[in-house]
Structures are given as C-alpha cells and as structure tokens.
Amino acid sequence: PGSPCYTNRLVKEKSPYLLQHAHNPVDWYPWGQEAFDKAKKENKLIFLSVGYSTCHWCHVMEEESFKNKEIGEIMNKNFVCIKVDREERPDVDKVYMTFVQATSGGGGWPMSVWLTPDLKPFAGGTYFPPDDRVYRVGFRTLLLRIAEQWNQNKDALLENSQKIMEALQIQARIRGQAQESPPPSEEVMAMCFQQLSKSYDEEYGGFSEFPKFPTPVNLNFLFTYWALHRTTPEGARALQMALHTLKMMAYGGIHDHIGQGFHRYSTDQHWHVPHFEKMLYDQGQLATAYTRAFQISGDEFFADVAGDILLYVSRDLSDQAGGFYSAEDADSYPTATSGEKREGAFCVWTAEEIRALLPDPVEGATEGTTLGDVFMHHYGVKEDGNVSPAKDPHEELKGKNVLMVRYSVELTAARFGLEQGRLGALLRQGRQRLAAARAQRPRPHLDTKMLASWNGLMISGFAQAGAALAKEEYVRQAVRAADFLRRHLFDPSSGRLLRSCYRDKDNTVEQSTVPIQGFLEDYVFVIQALFDLYEASLDQGWLEWALQLQHTQDKLFWDPKGFAYFFSEAGDPSLLLRLKDDQDGAEPSANSVTVMNLLRAACYSGHMEWVEKAGQILAAFSERLLKIPIALPEMARASAAFHHTLKQVVICGDPQGEDTKDLLRCVHSVFCPNKVLMLDDGAGTAFLRRQLPFVSALERKDGKATAYVCSNFTCSLPVTAPRELRRMLVP
Q: Among 29, 128, 238, 383, which is least packed by CB within 10 angstroms?
C-alpha cells in the first residue's frame, strides 16, 4: 500500500525475480554494460547476487539484508550491485557457480559473489545471515572487510583473482581427443548401475539419505538398463529400484495430494516434508518417468500419477497462449490478513481444520467414525502435527500436518470395516473438500516467466503421456505449446531460439527490449520435445523444425577442437568461461540429451555425421563416464543407444485407418528405449521420403497397414499384426 520508499533500475526488467528486488534500498543493476562501465569508471568492486523468484533462502536474504537500509548503504557506497535471475541467465550463473563450488566445496542459491571491475571472482558463497553468528560471519561484516581489502590490498586481490581464473579455465576444459573412441557402453552401463545400486535406499527408494531429490535421470537410466537386461537379476533389480522409488515418492508429502504435482525435494529420508516450491522442469520429467513406469509395469497407479501431474500443469502453470510458466513459490501468507509469508502455508493442515471440513459420519463404518477420522488415519495426520522439529528449524510448520499416504487402501479399509471401492470414493471426497478450502487461501507467488528449455521438457511430458496412455488431449496440449514456442520463442529470420518471454500485466505475452538468445539447453530440450511430439502426432512439420534447429545448434555451440557443445555461444566478452556441463542433476545436462537427439536426427535424416558427433561427445566425456557414470546417468543411457544402433520402426499406412492405429498403439504401448517411430502415408512429396529414400521402397502388404523394423537403413520382413510387431520390439 502507498508508494514504495525506494526504486532502482530493476523496475524496468521483465523477470519476476528482478522485479521482486526493484524496491530494495540497494541500488541494483541488471547484468549488463551499464553496471560494468560504472565499476570500471569508479574503480569499484562488483557484488553479484544470483537467485530465482521461488527460492526460499533468496527471500530470507532479501528480508534480512537487502531490505535493510543500513546494509543497503554499505553496499551502495562500496560496490556496484548486480542482480541476476539464474533462470534467465544460466550462462552467468554457471560461470560463477563453478567458482563458488571450487572455492567453498558447496553451492546453491542465493549465490553471493564479489568480482573485480573486470568481472573476475575472488570471494563468494551462498546465503549469509545479516550479522555474525557463532560459526558464521555475517553479511554486513563481510561487506566491510572486502571493501577494506580492496582499498588496502588492491594489487594482491587482483593478482589472486587472475590466478583463480586461470585455475578455473584449466578445470573447465573437458576435452576429447580427435582420435579417441567412445568408452565401451557395457562397462559404462554396468558401473552406473552398480553406483546407483550402492547409493539406493532399500526402504524408501531414492538415492541418498536426505535431502532427497526426484532425479528422473536416475530412473530413466534404470528403465533403459532393465530393457537391455530384462532376463538377468541385475535387470530385475534395476526395475524394482525405479518403480519402488516412484511409488514411495507418490505416497510421500513431496507429492501434493490435494493440489497435484510434485514439490522440488524432500528434506527427509521418507519423502515426507518437502521444500514446497514446484518447478516446471520436475513436472515435465516426472510425467515422462511415471508414463514409462506404466508402459513397463501396466500398473494403472503410475498412469494416474502421470495424469495428476499433467492436470496440475494444465490448471496452474499454463498460459492462455499455450506456454508453460516456470514455478510456484514455497512461501505464502497463511491467511489474507497475515503480514508475513511462511513456507508451506498453502499446503499444510491442522487436525482441527480437517475435522471441521470432514465431519460427516461414515455409514457402514465402526460406530461414530467420521470422514475426518478415515482421512486423517490414511494420510498420517496427528493432533499436534506430523512434522518433526528437526525438519522445521524456523517452527513454520509447528502443529501442522503434511499429508502423506501412511497406509495402503487395503489396511485403511480393514481398519474401518469398509469396502476398498467405498474407501477410494471417501478419500476422493475428502481431497476435493480440502482442495476447495485451500482455494480460499492466499496463493503462493507464481513465476510467469516462460523458458524455451523447460517448455521443451514439459512438451515431452505431455507428448509421451499422450502417446503411451492414448490420451489425445495431452497430445493437443503439447501441440499448442510447440506452436507457442514457434510464435514467441523463435526468430524465423535468423532461425534461432530465444531463451524467455513473460506474461504482461494484461495477460498478454511480451518480450524484453533486448531478447535473451537461446542457450544450448534451450535447443537441446526443444529438439527432444519436437522428436517426441512427432512420434505422438506424426505431423512431419515438427520433424522438419527439429532438424533445422539441430543444424543451428551445431553452428552456434559445437567445439570442433575439444568436441561436445559449449553451454553458451562465443562472442560475449562479459562471459569469462565457455563451459560444458558434465553433470546430470535435477535437469539432465544438455550434452547428455543431445547424444540421443543426434542419433534420432540421423535416423530421420540420413545425415550420418550426426552419429559421428554423438560418438565424439561420448569420447569427450569418456573419463567421467568410466569413473563416475552416476554423475552422467542420462549420457550413460545414451551411450547404450549409440552402441546398439537405434531401430527405425516404419509404419506404412493411412493415418486414419484402424489397422494403422492398431500398429501405432502397439508401438506406443511398449517401452523400447532405442527406437524411433515414423509413419509413411504414401505421399510421394512427404518430408521423410525426401530425407530417406529407402522409405519409398517399403510397401503395404496385401493393402494392409504394414510395419518394418529397420536398423542402419536395412529392414526386416514386413508384419501386419500388432502381436508380431510387439515380438520384434521386445525380443
């Protein structure tokens, strides 16, 4: 209410994160020439703060330090202060995160780094409390010490920063040798499986004690490992590890049982108390992982969870123009009159609230049982809250409950003397009532920035689920989102992708004055999405666009000397390092995903130099793949596709014919990781026939829709029955 006391340059930005800091007493600059010139002209150090709009500790540091007038004065007097949204500028984030991780042994956000006027880092960390604590130096003290050092020991500090940069440049050189061959896939896969198996939590699933992240890259690796070793004990264990992890996550509090979707990670071993923000990249990858789990197991439970994720994204993260928003915050106001936001306030419940919302007596259950009793038992609700104080250091969740499935439907039904079908209906009724009550609460902040890369991951989620679950509406939503990308995040005149666009105040889509050009991950995740969308929709236009983008990616990012792709393009003097990611984390690294993209691109185009490039990437990361493949499970998975050669499954038939649809359904129903699907509808001018002359020679057998399984452009005998095709796909 009223006009703010302070306004800085960030008020002109589009990023929701930068706008959150536009009224700090700190004289923030966005990353750019104006700030760099000021630092040089005034010979001042730069303080760089990097975060994102749904980051809990970023909010904490803002409240404690950046909104503090006195700290703001110290910052303005001694430093040129720059704010960066890591989701807008991952290139800047990666350069300085490399420094923070190398010098402090850890990383995370908010990231706080001090730079010389020529942008070289010399001190840094993550969150700092405002004042000194027993084991921690305070932000205020640090600012004053660093300013003093600059005034008194400038030369030593500059020399030190130069040495640090040289060390980082050496460390950043991931180089393959031109003649080096890729590492043997069997060895890489076996080692990755062993390392995952060793770190696996037998009881609760997942691959660490805590915090526990969903890491879909691990699950996708295990599915592929199983597909290649179906009949071995190791294959069976790989599948069990992946399915058990997905089940335990779906039962846990990391899964939002009332509002759908998944939170970012669990703070405990049991997947119970999450860090409550919800990220688009998790929803996209998890929709794919649960879809694959359903394809493999046939268990509807997994299909339901995939549907639940896609419902959440359609309802809460979708722009009316077709794109997907980035994230929902962890923090929100507990009530409309609260003055302070709390983590998880939107999602947690007291026992009293649930009793009041679900007072109905349950017919047929033991005497006096209410719907609240049944619901509270099933979801582990306790009178005094179910969050351990150890997982709630700020007492924001005291007396509150994070819902988690504590008992199977069979056990809860038996406990209250109910039939299982009836219990399912009662629990559904309870969830709907809580959802209606929750809708009255103040919502968490929504980051309405739309990123090409994360939209790509989400399009893959919708496309793969649409194909495997035979849900046409999911494919339609993927098509709308791809149309959105082409309209708002692609420049047809240059053939290049843009990184981000934004929702305006009047709900239209807008672009920043100087659009941010796409990074490697934008190309890689969008190309992957377009291949997935082609297989789900069989519209060759998506294939054509994917191959164009692959050529552009090669031109902008390929390293002809050291092999593999750089994260950012050349020519930006403010970027001190051109890096290549070597870690599959919450998101897969771009070089890992691009190996599979290149193999798919070669299968659809006949350009065999793309297969060569895929091998060169594997060679460039060879040492890491042989020693710690657990750091690159997505690349380990792609190495198997490289060595086994992708199967080209060609269906010749009329797309509207029932016989064609039966064959397509068969292909979509099985998990076959090392294949590409293509439809030849007999149109002589079709894009595929121009790219792949061998397709023209394939004919329909006896006038029926016919499938061929080809490898290296040599094809099997034709089959017309889905069960025969299935046998060829799953030997």
A: 383
- Calpha distance 363→546 (Å, rounded): 57
pLDDT 10s digits, 396-427: 999 999 999 999 999 999 999 999 999 999 99
Six-digit token pair at 189? 């896969």
Nearest Cα residue to 78 out of 30, 22, 27: 27
Strand partners, 491: 496
In this structure, which topology does domain 10-172 adopt according to CATH? Glutaredoxin (3.40.30)
Buried b (16+ CB within 10 A) or exposed e, 449-459: bbbbbbbbbbb
- Cβ count within 10 A of residue 383: 12
Domain boundaries, the chain: 10-172, 347-440, 648-729
β pairing state of 331-332 and 342-343: antiparallel
Residue-level pLDDT at 1: 54
DSSP strand pairing (278-279 vs 327-328) = antiparallel
- Long-range pairs of 5-14 with CB within 8 A, sequence gap ≥ 24: 6/72, 9/34, 10/83, 13/512, 14/449, 14/500, 14/502, 14/510, 14/511, 14/512
Contact indicator for 285, 234 with CB cutoff of 8 Å: no
pTM, rounded to two decimals = 0.96
What residue spans of 670-706 are helical by DSSP H? Answer: 687-691, 693-696
User: Cα separation of 228 and 688, whole Å?
Assistant: 29
Which residue, 581, 597, 580, is CA-closest to 638?
597
For 556-586, the pLDDT digits (tens) are: 999 998 889 999 999 999 999 999 988 999 9
Is the pLDDT at 627 greater than 70? The verdict is: yes
CATH number of this structure's domain 648-729: 3.40.30
Is pLDDT at 212 greater than 90 in this prediction? yes
Helix axes 520-537, 452-468, angle to 10 degrees: 20
Taking the C-alpha atoms of residue 132 and residue 664, their distance in angstroms, rounded to an integer, is 64
Within this chain, domains 10-172 and 648-729 share the same CATH topology: yes
| Cα–Cα nearest to 456, from 294, 641, 280 | 280
Tens digits of residue pLDDT in 670-696: 999 999 999 999 876 588 899 999 998
* Measured distance CA(647)–CA(602) in Å, rounded: 12
- Reduced to 3 states (helix: H, G, I; strand: E, B; else coil), residue 643 is helix
pLDDT attached to residue 3: 81
The span from the first CA to the last CA of the chain, in angstroms, equals: 67
The residue whose two tokens read 């990023």 is: 15
The dihedrals phi and psi of 328, each to the nearest 5 degrees, come to: -115, 140
CA distances from 339 to 332, 335, 442, 447, 695 (A): 10, 9, 12, 21, 66
Sign of CA dihedral 90, 91, 95, 96: negative
pLDDT at 108 over 60: yes
DSSP 256: -
Closest CA to 522 of 495, 554, 491, 500: 500
| Nearest alpha carbon to residue 726 among 664, 680, 667 | 667
